Protein: enoyl-CoA hydratase
Organism: Halogranum amylolyticum
Amino acid sequence: MDVDDINSITVLGAGNMGHGIAEVAALAGYTVNLRDINEEFVQKGYDQIEWSLNKLAEKDRISDDDAEAALDRVTTFVDAGESVADADVVIEAVPEKMDIKKEVYEAIDEHAPEHTIFATNTSSLSITELSEVTDRPKQFCGMHFFNPPVRMQLVEVISGEHTADETMDTIEALAEQMDKTPVRVRKDSPGFIVNRILVPLMNEAAWMVQNDYATVAEVDSTAKYGLGHPMGSFELADQVGIDVGVHVLEYLHEVLGDAYRPCPLLEEKVEEGELGKKTGTGFYEYEDGDGVQIPTDEVREDVERRLLALMANEVAGLVANDVADPESIDKAMKLGAGYPDGSAKAADEAGLDTLVETLDDLHEETGEERYVVVDYLRELAEEGEGFYGASDEQESEEHDFETIRIEHEGSVGHLVINRPHQMNSISPELLGELSTAIDLLADDDEVRAILLTGAGDRAFSAGADVMGMASGGSDPLRGVELSKKGQETFGKLVACDKPVVAGIDGYCLGGGMELATCADLRIASERSKLGQPEHNLGLIPGWGGTQRLARIVGEGRAKEIIFTAERFDAETMERYGFLNQVVGNDELHEKSMELAQSLAGGPPIAQAFTKRAMRKGWENQEAGLEIEAQAFGHLMTTDDLNEGIMAFASDRDPEFEGK
Ligand SMILES: C/C=C/C(=O)SCCNC(=O)CCNC(=O)[C@H](O)C(C)(C)COP(=O)(O)OP(=O)(O)OC[C@H]1O[C@@H](n2cnc3c(N)ncnc32)[C@H](O)[C@@H]1OP(=O)(O)O
């Protein structure tokens, strides 16, 4: 079945995941049958969809009409057979127990049409085993959404032993239709990708505390501020539920052996009913205490190495068993766990030889199975390679951008900031890629103008990646370096001889606004909101904002924008002189490209000299005027001037060549 043939989707289970998946499917335009075992459960799921759609509309992420239409597409069912009678795809999200899931499939198989694909939203159970209770194992695969489905971008699409390639292709395409990013898991391996890496890490964190090797504070400080993970390991355990983590570990232990033996510290928490946030107590106290408190200055290098070593071993196991390649693993870990670099890349950066040594030492010391080095990891380390090849190969791949995109449209080099699900916030990695990309575009003779935009329609950029910034801990020197790196990178746009246009759609905040400030012209959609909110965070605009903004809007307005830290609408920012033009929301892409194209058709030498003279004039007007005069003289000798005059005389458009 082709994805275009899918009209109706049945979601079995109206709990947290089920109603979330149903909402996503309804938002994508599908007719949705939502089914649970009784009226009360299914109605609760329906009500939650309604609540969530209203929230999206309140936040202007969808219109009121779209929210209403999506809800209209959802029908509730209690009878399992009836619910699948017209389904093209069934997504099952019933409790994570093999017996329950098998019963459900046995109950629906004969009622669903022959062409229907079954996709299970299990987070770790065997797809193959489940598929075998149906008469359609080829049309059966895993479709693992992350919680909450409406917000989380990742969907792991998992092949069972019998799954046909066509089924995988269709379900991946379906995930894309739902505006999600599918990552293919080629084999039905316990925990798939994200849980297979996250849960053993949580276990290792617990073992370190259990064995008095480190404290909860040290481990969480290291995970969050050393490795840049969005949460500390114990914070994450509390967030997802310690019982949930233990449940996955028990399954991994049962199927894969002693390397996954759950740490007693985790088991005790479950026995005591201290399951994390949901019970008010876990590793942190939520109800009667201060909640999560993670110090920024207790990062320990040895703890960091240990976590990375365990992670590298899991990655090696997945790659060696052909479950997924390093790129897919990293994509999944970035989208599903919020790891800044992914796991394979982080391991490569730490050095696989060091991590193997760490595992060997730990194994010698403790004899624990989980430190046994996977053969493939040892081979890579011995050959001096990383998951992404030898270190020199990695350098040659540096233009394979992950956080930005470069697209060429005629002579416009279009640079897209590409982290839409983090509001195109600017991580240190993105800053590095931006710097390389600006150099590439500046040096590319085919490119005559640069257009900067943000991917998606929610943000040009919401500023520096606050999590990435936090991962520097409280090290002031790292802060200074980060500020300088941003100033220099954005400064390359100012120094670039080619005209630069910023096309702003949505939020343009903090570092994002400082980036736009370095463009020559700014055009924004009506819905855009701009501002320098750094004072709200106790910071200052550190990527040139204290200097460059005033050049455009004047000191008084710059101070107003920075000191109030407010978000200003596009119309106001046009009035303040920051925006050159405000256009309708649907027109931004077209109009900003049109503007960039028209500048790309301009006289390159005259444009370059204009930028240089104006830039020098900021520092010293005399110098600026001198450059202006010299440039004016130089231009007299150019073919472009000749072409400009000829075109004027013959009443046609000039064709400048920059000669
Ligand atoms: C030198 C430079 C310094 C700086 O630039 S400092 C940073 C200045 N910027 C800010 O303070 C803006 C921070 N962001 C926000 O205030 C809000 O966001 C918005 C108003 C932009 C949007 O709010 P809403 O519509 O409610 O969306 P959401 O759930 O907050 O964001 C969606 C996802 O985007 C992530 N995100 C947004 N901004 C940043 C950021 N600046 N750094 C890192 N992540 C960011 C969120 O966390 C979340 O992610 P998840 O879906 O995983 O929860």
User: Anything to note?
Assistant: The chain has four domains: 3-185, 193-390, 404-599, 603-650. The mean pLDDT is 93.
